[in-house]
Every structure is written in structure tokens, then in C-alpha cells.
Amino acid sequence: MHTAAIDPPGITWLRVSPKYVTVRLVEWALGNLIVIAVLSLPLLFTRLGWWRWPPLWLAVAVPAFMLVLALWRLLLIPRQVRAIGYAERDDDLLIRGGIFFQRVMVVPYGRMQYVDISVGPVERRLGLCTLKLHTASASTNASIAGLPAEEGARLREQLSARGEARLAGL
């Protein structure tokens, strides 16, 4: 279901690379492995007889619940990546994301102070990057993750040039 607020008419959304799913899966695996391992320690300690509390049902239920929640999040990752998009307009950049709670952020070129690109180890291996836009507002958290490195470099230069042109006009 598309709404006019999220999908303004005449906007063609550019999507991030499908390889970004791999980055998110690695993050998911590492994070959930640690959480489930830590939450499974009470189960291990009660089974070894080192602890008498918590009861066995609780020691099993907590990591099992987290495992089910982790699997649910795993199923959502590809859809979340497909929902990320951006569009360059004459005066601003639109950034879109979210499945259940959709969000569109509009960043005017004249408000941009600088554009930053970051690359993590998994992103680097896949040829991806994350573009971050910094504005005068400290609360602005505008970023586009999962861009191909070439597109990120092009977008950085394009946005920087447009931002400088808009600032010069003030």
C-alpha cells in the first residue's frame, strides 16, 4: 500500500544495492549469536547444577523467545533493504525507509554542512558504502546505507556541489 505522503507523485526512487542484505545478515548473525549465548548461560548453569534459580522452564523460555524474535527479524531483513530508497530533486534529497513504520526524510541542499562516507569491513568487501548527511540540526540523522561505492562517491560530490551552490545563494 502506497500513500501520497510516503510516495509523492512524480518521484522515482533509486534503491540501494541488493548486496546490502548480506551486510545486514552478518550484523544480524553476530548480534543475535551474542545475545542468545548470554541469555543461554542461566540454562547452562542450572543444567550443570551450579545455580538453583531460575527454574528450568524460565531458563529455556527466555533464550527460546529471543531465538523466535531473531528469526522473525531475519525474515524482515530483505524487505527492509528493498524499502530503502532515495531521490534527488532540484532543491532537496528525499530518503525513504521502513516497512511497518514508513518514513520519508527531506534534506534541503542548502542545509547540508558536509557529506560523509563510511565503509565497514563487510561493506568494503562487497563494494558498498554508507553516505551520511550532516546539517545544522544535531537531530538530523540522514543516511543512506548500502550504496555501491561508485554511486556513493558520485552522490557525495553531487550533493556537496549542490549544497555549496545553495549556500552561496544565501
Short recap of the structure:
With 170 residues, the protein is an alpha+beta fold.
Radius of gyration: 21 Å
Q: Multimeric state of these chains?
A: single chain
Question: Care to count the β-strands?
Answer: 7
Number of helices: 4
Low-confidence stretches: none
Major β-sheet profile: 4 strands, antiparallel
H/E topology pattern: EHHEEEEHEEH
Average pLDDT metric: 92
| Cα separation of the termini | 40 Å
The level of helicity is 40-55%
Biggest sheet, spatial arrangement of strands:
1-2-3-4
What fraction of residues sit in β-strands?
A: 15-25%
Globally, the shape reads elongated
The secondary-structure class comes to: alpha+beta
Describe the structure in your own words.
This protein is an alpha+beta fold. Helices cover 48% and strands 24% of the residues. It is built from four helices and seven strands, in the order E-H-H-E-E-E-E-H-E-E-H. Strand 6 and strand 7 form a beta hairpin. Helix 1 runs antiparallel to helix 2. The radius of gyration is 21 Å and the shape is elongated.
Which helices and strands occur, and which strands form pairs?
Elements: E1 14-15, H1 20-47, H2 56-83, E2 85-88, E3 92-97, E4 103-108, E5 112-118, H3 121-126, E6 128-135, E7 142-148, H4 149-168
Antiparallel strand pairs: 1-2, 2-3, 3-4, 5-6, 6-7
